[in-house]
């Protein structure tokens, strides 16, 4: 049991990142968050414009109904369609707003865990260690003294980055630099 616990401690250490790497990833997250927020603001603005347009249709059609230019049957059918369209727009707007907020929060929590997981693992009781491992790993096998793990995303990227030092996903850290032949 102690040997297995040590093997898991070694596995958890594979996602540990330095403060420098954490700062670099956090900066990339902030830049990505800025792009994402611009996208979400644009999407929300388009949804608000759609909402106003549909609401204007409803208002015009209601005035036409009151003036006798639209039958009650047509009004009932179209108003149901438009009300459903308004509900869809409200739902989509809410999804955009929550997605924008969750992105940075989750990213920060992942970075914090990557920096603290090894120390946490060593000081936790068995139940807490199991909970931490379930957060980090999706599958483990133990065969002839060897532990094989499958990481939960995005911890797989952290482990891979630590293994090969490729934090940029095979991009050069200075894309403007001329390669030397």
Protein topology:
Blueprint: H1 2-13, H2 19-66, H3 72-123, H4 126-136, E1 137-143, E2 146-151, H5 155-164
Antiparallel strand pairs: 1-2
Helix pairs in contact: 1-3, 2-3
Structural notes for this entry:
This protein is mainly α and 181 residues long. 73% of the residues lie in helices and 7% in strands. The chain has helices spanning 2-13, 19-66, 72-123, 126-136, 155-164, and strands at residues 137-143, 146-151. It has a two-stranded antiparallel ribbon with strand order 1-2. α1 (2-13) crosses α3 (72-123) and α2 runs antiparallel to α3 (72-123).
Roughly how much helix do the residues carry, as a percent range? over 70%
List how many beta strands DSSP finds. Answer: 2
Structural class: mainly alpha
| Shape summary | elongated
Physical arrangement of strands within the biggest beta sheet: 1-2
Distance between the termini: 53 Å
The succession of helices and strands, N to C, reads: HHHHEEH
Radius of gyration: 26 Å
- Tally the helices: 5
Which keywords apply here?
single chain; about 180 residues; elongated; disordered C terminus
Please provide a brief summary of the model.
This protein is mainly alpha-helical and 181 residues long.
